[in-house]
Automatic annotation (TrEMBL):
Pfam families: 3D, MltA. It comes from the Bacteria. The keyword Cell wall biogenesis/degradation applies. The keyword Glycosyltransferase does not apply. GO terms for cellular component: outer membrane. Keywords: Cell wall biogenesis/degradation, Lyase. It catalyses: Exolytic cleavage of the (1->4)-beta-glycosidic linkage between N-acetylmuramic acid (MurNAc) and N-acetylglucosamine (GlcNAc) residues in peptidoglycan, from either the reducing or the non-reducing ends of the peptidoglycan chains, with concomitant formation of a 1,6-anhydrobond in the MurNAc residue. One of its GO terms (molecular function) is peptidoglycan lytic transglycosylase activity. SUPFAM superfamilies: Barwin-like endoglucanases. One of its GO terms (biological process) is peptidoglycan catabolic process. This is peptidoglycan lytic exotransglycosylase.
Length: 355
């Protein structure tokens, strides 16, 4: 039988047998994909500290949400000796394709405000905790809606403008001396407040009033204050508002969304529940990128260039779309400046586990 099979192969000119040994189109596609994977991985590896990345990955794994994404990988990471090999052999880089929403990297930071535990002529703007009458309702697709109960009916919670005009049923954590800085702390999601006696308290996101976030920068462009979105920065917004104090309230109130805070024992913490790491933590749209994911991002602007591995550890009202991320820059003047100026095209890859 073996001789017959060999003769048959010769008679048909190897057409049916040689194919068993020659590369197929599927083999070529696999080799091409593998080559592309290695190319992308190496481009993100040039200046990477893989030992640091592994340490941060293990910290990231402490969050329950991360365990849902990387259950087996998290366990495996505890026994790794070669950090680079671990990331290269354990994950596949999956490109996140953009949709009609703008692909963009922006930045945020941990601001410093000045405040007091007592209200005074200087310190008169309250930092509210979560209201006692705020109701959270889980709707379709796990959408979380907020409201309040009035005569047995749930109605929308007060808007920013309404909150400014009334006393709400919420603890006042402290008072600060600048309403513009307070507004920006809401946008950042956390901050520090230095009290009159020099003590510093950490403030973190607790909840929101449930109204849709509307960009102040976009509103100022629409009103002709700025000529284009590219002209807008946090620094320019604040400078314009300070130069036109009579317009501050009207402009701030165009964003009906309002953030409530809580006192924290630690510095800036994201939606994942872990302390954010400067230039390693990003806020993403969880509808496209699972919280806790390791992602690779590539972006370049006149002020900031990045091509590295980071962690999806936060969310934000303005962060919408698959190729949209907000890089946590940290604390201090450099972080503040870059976060205020950064707006750059963005490419994103999600690191998917092989097992």
């Amino acid at each position: 039988m073996r001789y017959f099979f060999l003769s048959f192969c010769i008679l048909v000119g190897f057409t049916g047998c040689a194919s068993k040994l020659s590369p197929t189109s599927q083999d070529d596609a696999f080799a091409s994909t593998l080559q592309e994977q290695n190319k992308h991985f190496e481009s993100f590896s040039h200046e990477e500290n893989f030992d640091e990345l592994l340490m941060l990955f293990r910290e990231n794994c402490k969050a329950p949400q991360t365990q849902k994404v990387y259950a087996k990988v998290c366990e495996h990471s505890l026994h790794v000796k070669d950090a680079k090999a671990f990331f290269q052999n354990t994950f596949v880089l999956k490109k996140v394709e953009p949709n009609e929403q703008r692909s963009m990297l922006t930045g945020y930071y941990e601001p410093l405000l000045h405040g007091s535990l007592k209200k005074s002529e200087r310190f008169k703007y309250p930092v509210y905790g979560k209201p006692k009458d705020l109701i959270k309702i889980v709707g379709e697709n796990d959408a979380k809606m907020r409201g309040r109960s009035v005569k047995g009916k749930v109605v929308p919670y007060f808007t920013r403008e309404e909150i400014a005009k009334r006393k709400i049923n919420a603890e006042i954590l402290c008072y600060v001396d600048d309403k513009i800085d307070l507004f920006f702390m809401e946008v950042q999601g956390s901050g520090r407040v230095e009290l009159e006696d020099g003590r510093v308290i950490f403030i973190g996101y607790a909840d929101s009033n449930g109204h849709t976030y509307k960009s102040l920068g976009r509103e100022m462009v629409d009103r002709g204050i700025f000529s284009s979105p590219e002209e807008v920065s946090m620094q320019k917004i604040k400078a314009w508002l300070e130069a036109h104090p009579s317009k501050i309230d009207a402009l701030l109130n165009t964003n009906p969304s309002y953030v409530f805070f809580r006192k924290m024992e630690q510095r800036a913490t994201g939606s994942l529940g872990v302390v954010l790491t400067p230039e390693r933590s990003v806020a993403v749209d969880r509808n496209y990128i699972p919280l806790g994911s390791l992602v690779a991002i590539k972006s370049e602007s006149p002020y900031y260039k990045v091509e590295k591995f980071v962690f999806a550890q936060d969310t934000g009202g303005a962060i919408k779309g698959p190729n949209r991320a907000d890089m946590f820059m940290g604390y201090g003047e450099r972080a503040k400046w870059i976060a205020g100026e950064l707006k750059a095209p963005l490419e994103v890859w999600v690191m998917e586990p092989k097992f």
